Amino acid sequence: MRLTPYGAREIAVAVALCLPAIIIFLWLGARTSFLWYAAAAMPAALLFLTLYFFRDPRREAQLDKNSILSPADGTVTHIDEVDEPCFIGGRALRISIFLSLFDVHLNRAPCAGQVVYKQARAGEFVNAGRPDSTHRNTAQDLGLETGDPRLPRILVRQIAGIIARRIVCHPDLGSRLSAGECYGMIKFGSRTELYIPATCAVRVRMRVGEHVRAGVSVLAEIIS
Question: Is residue 190 among the annotated active site residues?
Answer without folding.
Answer: yes
